[in-house]
Amino acid sequence: MAPLMAIFLHEADLPAGVLADGPVAVDTETLGLNPLRDRLCLLQIADGRGDEHLVRFGRDYAAPNLRAVLGDPARLKIFHFARFDLAVIAHWLGVTAAPVWCTRTASRLVRTYTDRHGLKDLAKELLGVDISKAQQSSDWGADELTEAQKDYAASDVRYLHRLKDILEVRLAREGRTELAEACFTFLPWRARLDLAGWPEVDIFAHG
Ligand code: MN
């Protein structure tokens, strides 16, 4: 029998106690791609047991329960392209969502045979799952989210635990686990550089 899975929509904060212990998958939906300009509209979070929680924001970003989870140094946060989500979360919720594990960064370190590192590409190749990206560019600030938006948003955190498990094996196989861990440790700082005025600049570059 398939496990019972549900998508829960919450307003402004996560209810206390809805997540099991352990790593959580996290994603955000915003009004656009500039974290300083475009507000955080939705944050998705899942503990990997099957339920997905969507937290919707209007103007109130206090979210004490959610911030406690995101800022918990004992709880790993799994992202796909953590750099963007970390910047959004730092700017709008005022918390550094570390420690971090990023499936996109891991993919770039081990899937060197391709330049396709989107979540859709990873889910297809590593899990054989098709994720629809049709709602990606929709209006996440709308008063009412559509069922299609909610399902899309939830699917962005649904597979991250499983992808991490597979990518961890690949990183170990290629001797790149330590390199990945160092990248994950730096990611919150890369996001801070983006917010501080060094987006798309390699600060280590000579020229
Ligand atoms: Mn997303």
Written description of the protein model:
By secondary structure, this protein is an alpha/beta fold. The chain has a single domain, classed as Nucleotidyltransferase, domain 5, CATH 3.30.420.10. About 40% of the residues lie in helices and about 15% in strands. The chain has seven helices and six strands, in the order E-E-E-E-H-E-H-E-H-H-H-H-H. The chain has helices spanning about 65-70, 80-95, 105-110, 120-125, 145-160, 160-175, 175-195, and strands at about 5-10, 25-30, 40-45, 50-55, 75-80, 100. It has a six-stranded mixed beta sheet, with helices on both faces. Helix 2 links the parallel strand 5 and strand 6 (about 100). Helix 2 crosses helix 7 and helix 3 runs parallel beside helix 6. The model has no long low-confidence stretch (mean pLDDT about 95). The site of manganese (II) ion has 3 residues, from strand 2.
Give the tags.
207 residues; alpha/beta; Nucleotidyltransferase, domain 5; binds manganese (II) ion
Number of helices: 7
Major beta sheet, strand line-up: 1-4-3-2-5-6
How do the helices and strands follow one another from N- to C-terminus?
EEEEHEHEHHHHH
Total number of strands = 6
Please give the CATH architecture. Answer: 2-Layer Sandwich
Terminal CA distance reads 58 Å
> Mean pLDDT score, rounded?
96
Uncertain segments of ≥5 residues (pLDDT<50)? none
Biggest β-sheet description: 6 strands, mixed
Name the CATH superfamily classification. Answer: Ribonuclease H-like superfamily/Ribonuclease H
User: Helical amount among residues, as a percent range?
Assistant: 25-40%
* Oligomeric state of this protein: single chain
Q: Based on CA inertia axes, which overall geometry fits?
A: globular
| Class from helix and strand fractions | alpha/beta
Overall domain count: 1
Enumerate the distinct ligands.
Answer: manganese (II) ion
Beta-strand share of residues: 5-15%
According to CATH, the fold-level topology is Nucleotidyltransferase, domain 5
Report the radius of gyration as a whole number of Å: 17 Å
Broad CATH class: Alpha Beta
